Predict the structure.
Amino acid sequence: MTGRRAEPDGLEAQGFRALVANRLEMVLGLAARLSTRGRSVFVICGIFGAVAFVVIYGIHVLDFGYTDWLLRSSGDITAQYTGWLFFRNSSWQFPIGLVDGIVYPSKISVIYSDPIPLFALIFKLLSPVLPSTFQYFGLYGLLCFILQGAISGLIIFRLSNNAVFALVCAPFFILLPALIFRMFFHTALAGHFVLLLAIWLCITKEDGPRSRRRATVAWSALICLATLIQAYFVPMVLLFAVFYFLDDFIASRSVRAPLSLFVCLIPWLLVVYLLGAFYGSTQSAGTGLGNYSANILSLVMDQSWGGVHWSRFLRPSVLATGGQYEGFAYLGLGMILLVFLALVAIVKKAFNSGVLALFRHRIDRKVVLGTILVVVFFVIALSPRVTFGSHTLFTYHLPTALSNLWSIFRCSGRFMWVPGYVIMFVALWAVSREYRRVGAAIVAFCLLLQVGDIYRPILTLGQEVQVISSPLQPLSQTWDQIGSRFKHIDFLMDPGANTGFFFPFGVLAYRFHITTSNYYVSRPESTTIAEYRDAAFQSLENGLVDNSTVYILDPGQVFELTGQRALSIYFLDNKYVAFTSSFKLTGNDVSPIAGLGLSVDVTSHYGANQKNSSDLPDGSRVVHAGGSTWSRSMELPAGSYTFTWTGEGMGMMDCSLAYGSGGDSLPIRNVLATDQLKSFSVDLSQNISQVSATCVNQSSSDVLVKSVIAQETA
């Protein structure tokens, strides 16, 4: 018996064959293009990126067991590494991105500990076969530089159709100061290739329903990838997608274009859910909008970071806010010159041909939309506080709902990266068109100027990663006694902005599988943490001590708890540690605390607790002329206290006692001054919060400050 297979016939069959042929031609055509010059540019520029990474950061950061470079600071890079440690220690649960030991008893999403969720998930799966000390941030950085070079080279090749020109241009993107700075300071944000992929999708856009379907898949994947790398990339990619489908809607007049954008959000919401972003009551909005902003001059102004100036030729600029390092987007002198040459060529052509004849209608639409997109990014980057150099031009106020939405991404200065990239690509495109015969030579000359401008800070930062001169101070071995005995750490003190206080405890918690109460995360549940801290301290005041918990106190709390017999308090590694009196801590670096007349070391070793001062390796501080230094902030119970500053040249210091967020002063008495010390007394009739002893150098000479001691006198 023979059967007959049903086949499409007539126009339907022709349409089916045409569709298959079209898809096959598209795939083969793309493969052919990328297998020749395009693929060569992609590979060679990727190699450029790999070489640059190794030259700058060295080979050691690629060692999975080498972690010193991640523990060298009190900044974001260390927070990301310890975030990975907590996530690795957490048990698998659903959603799979939850971390359960970092703000115990609560759970938070891995997004808020920022360990690059994609890599954290992959290597947590492999955790059983990995060594106990393991880091993937060097590998991530290498991939970032490879993709930065490869994708930027491919974009330039697409714009210029000149492989040699693309190879000469790619190093500008690999050696971009903002990229190198982020890799050094906040590694997750070195994933600028995500933004380059968004630009690639925009410049390769084609019209038509088939193109729209492919674009929907591509944008969905890119938005999800941005979420799995670093949350700040998500709104940037989303803005690109909005303008992409807006252009599609204008061209097609089809409602399917905006619908495609909403379809892109479905897999993104699933990824966000799986990462645990909807779990708990974590505050998504943060404080600091307007402080962590960009400057109108961000693209052309040099900035100083940690004493390192980025430009060899330009003078470092004074910023309007202390947080505008987040808007660092300096293009480099070579690229600035290229932008100038491109503007000259464009203006010249405008005068010769007429502005309206420069672009066809279809291109004109894309230019207008692209310009609007850049302006939107620029406005977001500036924040509601608009600054020019060291001056604030004006501040505008927004409805509460919009302000809260904007505050989710309070570090708005990071949005300045996109205008920078667009300006770079447009400038290079203009140079390739208007200086055809000498374009590559011009770019090569500007590249030499670029390297000459920024090579010193690049080498300085790279050397700091390769040779760790000032690593984060680890906890002493005495803490191993605590780690092997206790199961939980309660931070009852408030470290304020001193995030580095937490990081040594993150390593300890990982080694001994200890949970912590309120470790540093990007979006803490502030209200929940404050309530938990107050309840825990109230329990200690009532003599209720958890035998499995070690408590980290501030100096003021030590004064209040010294009478509790159920509690033992020690001074260890410049920290006040308390736990059940049934456990005795031993070691040469251990100082038990007890009794009336208690003396408490309140010296701050946190770099931000000073102005115009320099810290020395032995923990002392040189206060320069007109500079100041202040102690730890603490809450003091009612009573009488004497504060004593020690050092050299102390008689030239003007000391006071401030309290509250406004810095109001408390009346002091019995001021005593010699060359080696300065002391004063204060009487408190009630508990006072946020108390801090301050010393200002009123002389023209340096003063050496060694310590400040608070002593209870009655």
